[in-house]
Amino acid sequence: MRTSLATTTTYVATKNAGKLAEMRAIFAGSPLDLHTYPQYADVAEGETRYTDNALLKARALASQLREAHLEAAVLSDDSGIEVAGMDGRPGVLSARYAGEDATWERRLQCMLDEVDGVVGEGRAGRFVCVMALVLPGGEEFVATGTVDGSIALEPHGAGGFGYDPIFFHAPSGRTFAELTAQEKNAVSHRRRAADALLAALAARG
After folding, report:
1. Class of domain 8-203
2. 3-state DSSP call for residue 198?
3. Which DSSP category does 177 fall into?
4. Which among 189, 144, 125 has a CA at the least distance from the CA of 54?
5. N or C end of the chain: which has fewer CB within 10 A?
6. 0.85 exceeded by pTM
7. Are the C-beta atoms of 184 and 162 separated by less than 8 Å?
8. HSE of 118 in the Cβ direction (CA atoms, 13 Å)?
9. Contact (CB, 8 A) for 25 and 193
10. pLDDT (tens digit per residue) in 24-45
11. Residues 70/136, Cβ–Cβ less than 8 Å
């Protein structure tokens, strides 16, 4: 069964407040009206593919909503940072880099230590985001967005979250943490994944 492109109540499968705020800003004005679901129970994520994890989270929350007799769409994402000098790591393990219980300060320092002395292309990195949308009728959509950058020599900026303080975005001349929310949301991997997702949703007719 197809769901129309009229405004659709959509629950986001995340407990990350920073990510939720970004997604709300990015999807503002779209047919997806984003909300949180306080009872959302995290699922154990895999270690190989962003797409698998995004769909895993979306399907888990969709099942939880059905059990609660709520009819709504579900949006999830899985994202990570890939660094050339680290053979593309940490990738899907970005949130678990340096250990499950590591602080973000610890993760940033571990990454800086790992690329210490690395120059040029070895410091190249990119953010990857895969978004998954499950509509009330069961239709599923998946879209990917990426943004290229490099690993800074040290953290800069107080905005954003996660790896933003050490992700240098050359076109802006600043790290993601130094950009305003509006600036970051205009160029980020989540913006690009969201645009692709909304385009796929609109193209289905």
Report:
1. alpha beta
2. helix
3. G
4. 144
5. C
6. yes
7. no
8. 20
9. no
10. 999 999 999 999 998 888 888 8
11. no
In sequence order, which residues have a C-beta less than 8 Å from that of residue 196 and are 6 or more positions away? Answer: 131, 143, 144, 145
Q: Give the distance from CA 69 to its chain's centroid.
A: 28
Alpha carbon of 170 to those of 22, 122, 125, 155: distances in Å?
21, 15, 11, 15
Q: Is 52 a catalytic residue?
A: no
Provide CB contacts within 8 A for 100, sequence distance 6+: none
Tens-digit pLDDT profile for the chain (205 aa)?
Answer: 344 456 789 999 988 888 888 999 999 999 999 999 988 888 888 888 999 999 999 999 999 999 999 999 999 999 999 999 999 999 999 999 998 889 999 999 999 999 999 999 999 999 999 999 999 889 999 999 999 999 999 999 999 999 999 999 999 999 999 999 999 999 999 999 999 999 998 887 6
C-alpha–C-alpha distance, residues 33 and 64, integer Å = 19
Q: Residue 151 is encoded by which pair of tokens?
A: 């690993």
Tokens of 188: 């980020």
As given in the structure block, the two tokens for residue 122 are 């070895």
Query: What's 54-106 look like in SS3?
Result: HHHHHHHHHHHHHHCCCCCEEEEEEEEEEEHHHCCCEHHHHHHCCCCCCCHHH
Question: Using N-to-C axis directions, what is the helix angle for 189-203 and 17-27, rounded to 10°?
Answer: 50
Q: Which of the following is catalytic: 42, 52, 77, 78? A: 78
